[in-house]
């Protein structure tokens, strides 16, 4: 593993001010790895919620306010050799890169963060974060897109169009397009995802038909009831998402059961592992790793 360019967070700020080009050079010098190797199972930590203004975790409305606290938690998770990598926006990935936390790790960029949480335009989730070209230039493994479908919201079609374009662009570089689909609706003015099995199945069919090729498309799906029936809707490799934690033991049990399904290739989990109720990130991550492995 290469020596970190920065030993602490103050040094990151100093380097960003004095030599911003060092970040691009660091991406080129990073030890990379393919997304799929060995038995093909993946354990990915997700940290792209802040860029959508979603800073709450369970009953803690400001849980993700502190960037340095989030980075501490991510570094603890990535230190587990069973964690394959991370999904995040460029700001977080660049910080982790400068601290040498991404060496020999799978890296997914987060692409569409325009649908800010709680906004009137939440479902017009256009691409405001990473591009396919930048993802490829940094030698990452792929890009992830949120694809919420509200049949009553005209903003949905812009999201579908931008996701389709990004899928094609990622495929042109041979990179994975990770799609996270939901059937969504507004309840009391707030966007809510329908987690019934039939709604998740419908979202899968809509999402996997986007773009001119599905060769590089993967699914990122919630664990819901009748998961075996949900997974019959696709032949695409699938990672399970964690969602906003309610009961950790219940979440772990549902993940373990769903991981036994053949097209499920692992977990891509954020808040449940990074902000467990007891704040023991390493223990929560170790439990998840043991299920994937």
Overall strand count? 9
Main beta sheet, described? 8 strands, parallel, barrel
Mean pLDDT: 95
Distance between the termini: 23 Å
Tally of separate helices: 11
- What is the 3D shape? globular
Taking Cα atoms only, what radius of gyration do you get, to the nearest Å?
18 Å
Strand content: 15-25%
The secondary-structure element order is HHEHEHEHEHEEHEHEHEHH
Percentage of residues assigned to helices: 25-40%
The largest sheet has its strands arranged as 1-2-3-4-5-7-8-9
Spans where pLDDT lies below 50 across 5 or more residues:
none
Secondary-structure content class: alpha/beta
Keyword list:
alpha/beta, 37% helix, 8-stranded parallel beta barrel, 9 strands, 293 residues, 11 helices
Architecture blueprint of SSEs:
Layout: H1 9-18, H2 21-29, E1 42-47, H3 67-78, E2 85-88, H4 90-98, E3 106-110, H5 132-137, E4 142-149, H6 155-172, E5 176-187, E6 190-193, H7 197-208, E7 217-222, H8 227-231, E8 238-241, H9 248-258, E9 264-269, H10 271-274, H11 281-292
Parallel strand pairs: 1-2, 1-9, 2-3, 3-4, 4-5, 5-7, 7-8, 8-9
Antiparallel strand pairs: 5-6
Can you walk through the features of this model?
It is a single chain. The protein has helices at residues 9-18, 21-29, 67-78, 90-98, 132-137, 155-172, 197-208, 227-231, 248-258, 271-274, 281-292; strands at 42-47, 85-88, 106-110, 142-149, 176-187, 190-193, 217-222, 238-241, 264-269. It has 293 residues and is of the alpha/beta class. An 8-stranded parallel beta barrel has the order 1-2-3-4-5-7-8-9, surrounded by 5 helices. The longest helix has 18 residues, at 155-172. The two termini are 23 Å apart.
């Amino acid at each position: 593993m290469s020596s970190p360019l920065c030993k602490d967070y103050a040094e990151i700020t100093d380097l960003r001010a004095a030599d911003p080009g060092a970040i691009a050079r660091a991406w080129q010098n990073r030890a990379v790895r393919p997304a799929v190797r060995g038995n093909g199972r993946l354990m990915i930590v997700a940290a792209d919620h802040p860029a959508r203004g979603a800073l709450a975790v369970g009953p803690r409305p400001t849980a993700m306010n502190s960037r340095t606290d989030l980075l501490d938690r991510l570094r603890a998770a990535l230190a587990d050799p069973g964690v394959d990598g991370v999904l995040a926006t460029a700001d977080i990935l660049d910080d982790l890169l400068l601290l040498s936390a991404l060496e020999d790790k799978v890296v997914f960029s987060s692409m569409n963060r325009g649908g800010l949480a709680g906004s009137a335009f939440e479902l017009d989730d256009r691409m405001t974060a990473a591009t396919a070209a930048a993802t490829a230039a940094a030698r990452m493994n792929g890009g992830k897109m949120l694809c919420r479908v509200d049949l009553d919201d005209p903003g949905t079609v812009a999201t579908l169009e931008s996701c389709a374009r990004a899928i094609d662009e990622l495929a042109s570089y041979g990179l994975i397009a990770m799609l996270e689909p939901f059937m969504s609706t507004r309840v009391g003015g707030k966007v809510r995802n329908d987690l019934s099995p039939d709604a998740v199945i419908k979202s899968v069919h809509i999402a996997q038909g986007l773009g001119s090729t599905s060769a590089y498309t993967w699914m990122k799906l919630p664990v819901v009831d009748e998961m075996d029936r949900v997974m019959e809707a696709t032949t695409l490799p699938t990672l399970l998402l964690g969602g906003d934690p309610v009961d950790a033991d219940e979440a772990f049990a549902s993940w373990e059961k769903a991981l036994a399904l053949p097209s499920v290739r692992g977990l891509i989990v954020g808040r449940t592992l990074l902000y467990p109720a007891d704040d023991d990130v390493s223990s929560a991550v170790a439990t998840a790793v043991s299920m994937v492995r």
